[in-house]
Amino acid sequence: MQQRDLEPFETTSADGARLHGMRRPGTGTPVVLVHGVAMDRRIWADSGFLDAVPDADLLALDLRGRGASERVGLPQRHGIDRHVEDVRAVMDLFGHPEYTVFGVYFGGRTALRVAADDSRVTRAYSFCAHAEEVELPDDAVEQEAAAIEAPDGHRYLTDHFHRVGAPDWMVDACRRVDLPELAAVTRGLWHGSARAVQRRNPGQDLVLITAEGDPERDVFTAGERRLGARIWLVDSPTRVRAAHRLAEVGARVATEAAGQAAGTGAR
Ligand SMILES: CC(C)[C@@H]1NC(=O)[C@@H]2CCCN2C(=O)C/N=C(\N[C@H](C(=O)N[C@@H](Cc2ccccc2)C(=O)N[C@H](CC(=O)O)C2=N[C@H](C(=O)O)CS2)C(C)C)[C@H](C(C)C)NC1=O
């Protein structure tokens, strides 16, 4: 966030977790920004997304256990329903009738779940996470949590993201995350994150975004059919490398928000 016009906020999630965030005042429907698993709210400035959306009213929270928000410790307090409650607590705090929610990776899956649970969401964008059921590979998830808990847990993540060509802002974000909490978030995936996301509110505009080269592109188009979602493809060989395009995607979000304000909103 540009330092000049940031307004910190605090609120409490449904289970009592204290959440911190930043508002950058603007115009139009407020946009709640939801970061991914190994991240915090600083990614929005670091990725250039904020500069790409100069006019919107942006609400960027730190999800529980990340950034300045409360460490909750237990995997069952990191289930996707708790992430949904974190986002809804921010919407409650600002009291607007309508919101757009934009999430990246697991934050995108969370954004789709918030839309399903809350009709205040009129538009939801999921950057590089689809809405279909996933097979959680139990050994891989536990191995990943154990690798993260190890003394060099940050290296496990930063080595991986370097290897797969992630942008610096994503590698830097990993280094900021509290490792015991991140291991709990990883194990928290077992609590509800595997099931498909449903559309429960007919009027919502749902947008799924992935890489042209994503081998799982057909899973995203399944969401297009099943949910009546729109699909955006970014010019990138993989979902992780699509993170280099996050600012570009922000510019498209800004265009849609402007169009909506002018009454010619893309539907
Ligand atoms: C390889 C490794 C560094 C990476 N670990 C992460 O990165 C973060 C940090 C630690 C836990 N992490 C997860 O993600 C959980 N671990 C995984 N989950 C898969 C996955 O698909 N996850 C989705 C989100 C999601 C979740 C549940 C249900 C649906 C969607 C996802 O978005 N992953 C992308 C990578 C990609 O799209 O290829 C990223 N997520 C990062 C983030 O959210 O910060 C930024 S990149 C399967 C098994 C669900 C796999 C698996 C090997 C265990 N490990 C990873 O993926």
TrEMBL record:
Q: Which residues form the signal peptide?
A: none
Q: Where is the AB hydrolase-1 domain?
A: 30-140
Q: Which Gene3D superfamilies match?
A: alpha/beta hydrolase
Keywords in alphabetical order, please.
Answer: Hydrolase
Q: A single Gene Ontology molecular function, please?
A: hydrolase activity
Give me the ranges of the annotated region Disordered: 1-24
The superkingdom listed in its UniProt entry is: Bacteria
**Is the keyword Phosphoprotein in the record?**
no
Name of the protein: Alpha/beta fold hydrolase
Q: Which organism is it from?
A: Micromonospora humida
